[in-house]
Design a protein that fits this description.
Layout (H helix, E strand, L loop, with lengths): L10 E7 L9 E7 L2 E7 L11 H4 L1 H5 L9 E3 L8 E3 L2 H19 L4 E5 L13 H9 L3 E4 L5 H11 L16 E5 L3 H4 L5 H10 L3 E5 L5 H6 L2 E3 L6 H14 L5 H7 E2 L1 H9 L9 H8 L3 H13 L3 E5 L9 H14 L35 E3 L3 H7 L11 E5 L3 H4 L3 H7 L5 E6 L11 E4 L8 E3 L7 E5 L12 H12 L9 H10 L7 H7 L1 E3 L10 H5 L13 E2 L3 H6 L46 H4 L6 E3 L1 H4 L9 E6 L2 E9 L9
Parallel strand pairs: 6-7, 6-14, 7-13, 8-9, 8-12, 9-10, 11-20, 14-15, 15-16, 21-23
Antiparallel strand pairs: 1-2, 2-3, 4-5, 4-16, 17-18, 18-19, 22-23
Helix pairs in contact: 3-18, 4-18, 5-14, 9-12, 9-13, 9-14, 12-13, 15-17
Bound molecules: iron/sulfur cluster.
Iron/sulfur cluster binds next to helix 1.
């Protein structure tokens, strides 16, 4: 594909990539006239399915949003009041440099907590790059570890397969006889820009698609011929009961189990009840999950007999207590049915990354032995510091690309925590709930105002060159530019001694799958040629003698000795169903009988672009309630309702619909 550049130098069409934590990495064509974006279009690109979604097409409105922060701001009211006044870049950067130095001198560099996150992505300008490099050269800081997103999936992938690269290219779906979308809503979350395209094509070709989800999601509606609702947090029980049926009816692939796995016997003993006296029958799971036993049996038979079958076990069900059991159970089932490493199958393997479309180089971050706090404990660490057993007392909070109050657990605790640090700096586009707690806000650029390279989210067979569509808005700077100026003020040599383009050339040169940079830039999009769908573990299955799995045993670990060695009773070495606290079986249900799940929105990426009018019209912020749950409470469609528990409350609108599981009367 050639880049389109109009011969009239005042107007041009720029090829770039939409770059958010949305599950996609789509192709944008930005129409620019006299330095202003006039509209945003999209295209298929060299492989089909790279067309942008409404969020990507709304990026002009994001760039020129009236409430975009247009100059540095300093706090004038109470912290959190949202009262700021404009200040100059000169004064803002001087203040930030002074505060950084003060915190370091007074308390040590680890008193500074860097909270950089996925609101700002990309290999040169995105998170884990500019800020990390700065603080590594500054003398360190404290930062975060873990994930709020796919930690259970990640753990499961590593324990079961020894790698996070457990995914396939989306064209693989065209070869499946059955696709089970488990807790997966790709219309909203994409999981690869071309995934929907291939799922739709598979459906058209007659591939059976089943959706397992408490909600009849927009994806279930568009793609699935069967919807199986289950109680949230009980997914592992459903999968284990399917394993029971497959064992009981002798439908599993013995040869695959013997050749490629370890620990099946221990899993079998648990499933059939030899370990604990409880056979994990469909009737056992019916009680727990709310899915009728007959439905479970049929689902198990379908999965075991329609081969190849792709069980796509997505991340949402793993975001519960004991979520890794769900992921490990799904992979065990994929192994039992021999659906791993074959075209049309799927490892059901947690993370699902693909080792394609990843640059060989990104902005280098020197080794820095920073103390870390798990991402779910950040508020606690800020509130308690060393007295709570954390590595440091946090005195300065530096936030880049992160609306943590909105994204992380327990907002009320977060509000209390954000009162604690002596100083808070935020890089932002908008005055988010988190930015309201800043002492200084530094306005940043959007991806359309800078150059970079688009790498597919989670991996995929292409790269997109991201041309700068327009110059940065007058007072906006990229995260990298901000840290470059701070480095020069503080006296950190060598932080950024290259132009943005020189960095990109280095990244391209370090990437065997990519063209020479100038050719790539001219082409705009580079497709990595593949002669068949990329399928994780094809080599391990086809040639096990030369390609062991990267696990300690060299096989798929249904039983993990590594987990056993952890001696943590909450993480058994074989996948098991363990009832989640505050789950559908918790006695707390007498007090709080309705369970809440919070699906990803279709009109936003997490909380980004909440106020973009064009997207607001597509947003569905109502709380869905089954009529059987709503009517006994006197709740009608459109009523304002209060959702609350011991941790907080919110008011929203009720949508009374059969498209959500009936929970409890
Ligand atoms: S799916 Fe993501 S990358 Fe693609 S256009 Fe939408 S927001 Fe942008």
């Amino acid at each position: 594909m050639k880049k389109v550049v109009n011969s009239d130098s005042r107007s041009k069409v720029v090829t770039t990539s939409c770059y958010y934590d949305c599950g996609g990495r789509c192709l944008l064509k930005v129409y620019v006239d006299e330095g202003k974006i006039t509209r945003i279009g999209t295209a298929e690109g060299p492989l089909p399915g790279l067309k942008a979604c409404p969020r990507g097409l709304a990026q002009k409105e994001v760039v020129y949003a009236e409430d975009r922060i247009r100059q540095p701001l300093k706090r004038v009211g109470q912290r959190g009041s949202g009262k700021f006044e404009p200040t100059s870049w000169e004064e803002a950067l001087d203040t930030v440099a002074r505060e950084l130095q003060r915190a370091k001198d007074q308390y040590g560099a680890t008193s500074i907590f860097l909270m950089d996150y996925s609101g700002s992505r990309s290999p040169l300008h995105g998170f884990l790059k500019a800020g990390r490099r700065f603080f590594a050269l500054f003398g360190g800081c404290t930062t975060w570890c873990g994930l709020v997103s796919d930690e259970a999936a990640h753990f499961s992938s590593l324990a079961t397969f020894g790698t996070v690269f457990t995914g396939n290219t989306a064209d693989n779906f065209l070869h499946s006889k059955l696709i089970i979308m488990w807790g997966w809503n790709p219309v909203a979350t994409r999981f690869g820009s071309d995934t929907l395209y291939h799922l739709a094509k598979a459906k058209k070709a007659g591939v059976r698609i089943i959706c397992v989800d408490p909600r009849y999601s927009i994806s279930a509606k568009a793609l699935a011929e069967q919807w199986i609702p289950l109680k949230s947090g009980t997914d592992a029980a459903l999968l284990i009961a399917m394993a029971y049926v497959i064992i009981d009816e002798n439908l599993y692939e013995r040869r695959f189990i013997e050749n490629y796995t370890v620990g099946f016997k221990k899993f079998r003993d648990y499933v059939v009840g030899e370990e604990d006296g409880i056979p994990k029958t469909p009737e056992w799971a019916d009680d727990i999950t709310g899915v009728p036993a007959e439905t479970i049996k049929q689902l198990a038979r379908d999965y075991a007999s329609l081969k190849p079958a792709a069980l796509y076990a997505s991340w949402a069900p793993g975001r519960t207590a004991f979520g890794e059991q769900y992921h490990r159970a799904a992979s065990a089932l994929a192994a039992m049915t021999g659906n791993i490493g074959i075209t049309g199958g799927n490892a059901a393997g947690g993370t699902g990354h693909i080792p394609l479309g990843n640059l060989g180089g990104t902005l280098p971050v020197p080794e820095s032995p920073n103390p870390v706090v798990h991402i779910t404990n950040i508020y606690d660490a800020v509130l308690k510091g060393k007295s709570g057993g954390y590595p440091t007392d946090i005195k300065l909070l530096y936030i880049v690309g992160c609306n943590m109050l909105n994204q992380f657990l327990n907002t009320n605790k977060g509000v209390a925590a954000l009162q604690v640090p002596e100083f808070i700096i935020v890089h932002e586009l908008f005055l988010t709930p988190t930015a309201r707690f800043a002492d200084i806000i530094l306005p940043v650029t959007t991806t359309l105002e800078r150059i970079d390279i688009g790498q597919p989210w989670g991996g995929g067979p292409y790269f997109i060159h991201m041309d700068r569509a327009i110059e940065p808005l007058p007072q906006a700077k990229s995260d990298l530019a901000i840290f470059t100026e701070l480095a020069s003020r503080i006296g950190i040599p060598g932080y950024n001694d290259k132009s943005d383009e020189a960095w990109l050339k280095e990244f391209a040169a370090a990437t065997p799958d990519l063209l020479e940079y100038e050719v790539f830039k001219l082409k705009g999009v580079h497709r990595i040629p593949l002669d068949q769908p990329w399928v994780a573990f094809r080599e391990q299955i086809e040639d096990p003698a030369h390609h062991p799995f990267p696990t300690p045993s060299g096989k798929i670990e249904i039983y993990s000795q590594k987990i056993a060695d952890m001696q943590n009773h909450m993480i058994p070495p074989i996948p098991k169903y363990i009832e989640a606290w505050e789950g559908p079986g918790d006695p707390l249900l007498d007090k709080y009988p309705i369970q809440l799940i919070s699906p990803h929105p279709r009109a936003r990426v997490h909380s980004q672009w909440h106020k973009i009018l064009r997207l607001e019209k597509l947003a569905d912020d109502a709380v869905w309630l089954n009529p059987g749950d709503a009517h006994p409470r006197g709740i009608a469609n459109g009523d304002k309702v209060k959702i609350y528990n011991a941790r907080g409350q919110l008011i929203t609108t009720a949508r009374v619909t059969e498209h959500i599981l009936l929970l409890r009367l």
